[in-house]
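<instruction>
Derive C-alpha cells from the sequence
<data>
Labelled lines for chain and fold
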Amino acid sequence: MTPPVTASPSASTRTVGENSRGHLVDVGPARRGLRHAHDSPNMVRRQPPPAVPARAARRAWSREAKRLWRARRGPTTPTRSTGAAQEQAWAPHSYLLTTRGRRTGQPRTTPVTVVERDGRRYLVAPYGPVSWVLNARAAGHVTLRRRGRRADYQVREVDADEAGPVLKQYIGIARPTRPYFRAAPDAPVTQFVAEAKNHPVFELTRQG
C-alpha cells in the first residue's frame, strides 16, 4: 500500500492516501473515523475466491445433463470395442437394430427387443417416436443383427388394436422399460391399446 502523503500546503491541509481499490482518498481530519473499511489505506482486504470460468461451468452442466438423460432414456448403443461382448451377453430377445438416417444417410445402431407372437415378429419402441422410429418410418426397412448374424426386414407400423397385445407381452420380457408405460404388467389389454400411440409397434417381414 502507498503510505499516506501530504498534499501541498493550503488554507486547510489535507492528507490523501491510496485505498485498497487503488483510488486516492482523503484521510485527513474529516475522514479519520474511517466510516468504511475499504477507505483505510492500511486495510488488507480479503480477496474473493476465484470464479469458475463460464466454459467450465457449461461443460460440467452438459456432462450432468447427459448422465441424467442416459439414465432416463434406458440402455444405450454399445461402443465398437464392447459391442460384440455385450451382444453375446444379451437376453434371447435382444438384437442390434440398424436404420439409415433419414437426413444424413448414415447407419444408426441401437439395441432393441423383438417380440414373437403368433408366428410373427414385432419391433417395439418403448420410449416413443425416437430417432430410429422416424428412420424406420421413412425407409420402410431395417436390419437386425445378433451374434454375427444379420437379416434385413420390411417394417409395417401396426394400429392400436394390433399393438395392444404386443405391448403387454413386451413389458413382460423387457422389464427395465416398465416405468415408461402407464399400464401395469397384469393390466387388461385394453389399457395397452389406449396408450399404443405412445409406443410405436412395427411388424417385421424378412426380406429374401
About this structure: The chain has two domains: 5-39, 80-206. Residues 5-39 form one domain. The CA atoms of residues 98 and 105 lie 12 Å apart.
